[in-house]
């Protein structure tokens, strides 16, 4: 049994074959598919997918930093309304992204802080998007982290120093996806010094497909290729990768064993 802890199966990239993609994942042994929200425009589609596959899909609620624009306060209001009115497995996808545009950097900081506060209040983990923004996020979490806060740095591709900083928080994991299969990413050099107990698996589909599907649409069933690469890096049987990462994900997101 595997858990895909980060997959956007509700987006229009899957409009033509969404049910087949979900079923392929289930058939491959990925029993939980965790769906991180993006913004107000994706909430209904995400909820609809969860309703269609209630045994497998679990929603998160949050405002993606890429959607923090002029109307960010209205978007946050929608997040709050949903967060406090129904059940979610996490507050996400939240964080900061300074790769494309730094216009709303201060608004990104404020939105992130507010959503971290809500997560602590609701005792939910957070799913963090940290693109070109590790230091910005560390500054905030160094201040806000306490025993109530847990979460994952999704799509972790950082340095060993950054991995150790994340591990020092106590309640955080690193989400490992398709990038680990890219030779130039050299993720093996970092992960060799990071214990498996700190990792969970994700696809971030439809993005960042693992080899041999790089450049094509990603999907949750491809998580097996990520697990196989970790098996090679750590020199342990695939079964151990499956068991440890699944246990980590189940505990972090408070999922029930099937």
Keyword list:
258 residues, alpha/beta, TIM Barrel, 5-stranded parallel sheet, 3-stranded parallel sheet, 8 strands
List the helices and strands and how they pair.
Layout lengths: L1 E3 L13 H10 L2 E6 L7 H10 L4 E3 L12 H12 L7 E7 L7 H18 L3 E6 L2 H11 L6 E3 L6 H9 L3 E5 L10 H5 L7 E3 L21 H12 L3 H15 L6
Helix pairs in contact: 3-4, 4-5, 8-9
Question: What does this molecule look like?
Answer:
The mean pLDDT is 97. A five-stranded parallel β-sheet has the order 4-5-6-7-8. The protein is built from nine helices and eight strands. Helix 7 links the parallel strand 7 and strand 8 (199-201). The chain has 258 residues and is α/β, with parallel strands linked by helices. The protein has one domain: TIM Barrel. It is globular, with a radius of gyration of 17 Å. It has helices at 18-27, 43-52, 72-83, 105-122, 134-144, 160-168, 187-191, 223-234, 238-252; strands at 2-4, 30-35, 57-59, 91-97, 126-131, 151-153, 172-176, 199-201.
**Annotated CATH homologous superfamily:** Metal-dependent hydrolases
The termini sit apart by 9 Å
Low-confidence stretches: none
Strand content: 5-15%
DSSP strand count: 8
* Number of helical stretches of at least 4 residues: 9
Oligomeric form of this entry? single chain
Adjacency order of strands in the biggest sheet: 4-5-6-7-8
Mean pLDDT: 97
CATH architecture: Alpha-Beta Barrel
Radius of gyration: 17 Å
Can you write the helix and strand succession as a string?
EHEHEHEHEHEHEHEHH
Q: Identify the CATH class.
A: Alpha Beta
């Amino acid at each position: 049994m595997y858990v895909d802890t980060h997959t956007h199966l509700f987006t229009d990239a899957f409009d033509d074959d969404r049910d087949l993609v979900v079923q392929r994942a289930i058939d491959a042994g990925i029993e939980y598919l965790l769906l991180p929200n993006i913004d107000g425009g994706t909430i209904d589609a995400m909820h609809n997918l969860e309703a269609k596959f209630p045994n497998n899909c679990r929603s998160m609620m949050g405002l993606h930093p890429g959607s923090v624009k002029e109307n960010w306060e209205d978007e946050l209001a929608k997040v709050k309304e949903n967060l406090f009115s129904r059940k979610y497995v996490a507050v996400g996808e939240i964080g900061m992204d300074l790769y494309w545009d730094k216009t709303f950097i201060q608004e990104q900081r404020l939105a992130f802080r507010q959503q971290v506060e809500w997560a602590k209040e609701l005792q939910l983990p957070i799913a963090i998007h940290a693109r070109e923004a590790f230091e910005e996020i560390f500054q905030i979490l160094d201040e806000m982290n306490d025993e109530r806060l847990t979460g994952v740095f999704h799509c972790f591709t950082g340095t060993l120093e950054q991995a150790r900083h994340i591990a020092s928080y106590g309640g955080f994991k690193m989400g490992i996806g398709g990038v680990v299969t890219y030779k130039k990413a050299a993720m093996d050099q970092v992960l060799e010094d990071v214990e498996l107990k700190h990792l969970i698996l994700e696809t971030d589909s439809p993005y960042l497909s693992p080899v041999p599907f790089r450049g094509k649409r990603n999907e949750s069933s491809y998580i097996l290729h990520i697990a196989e690469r970790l098996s090679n890096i750590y020199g342990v049987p695939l079964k151990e990768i499956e068991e440890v990462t699944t246990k980590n994900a189940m505990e972090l997101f408070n999922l029930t064993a099937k």
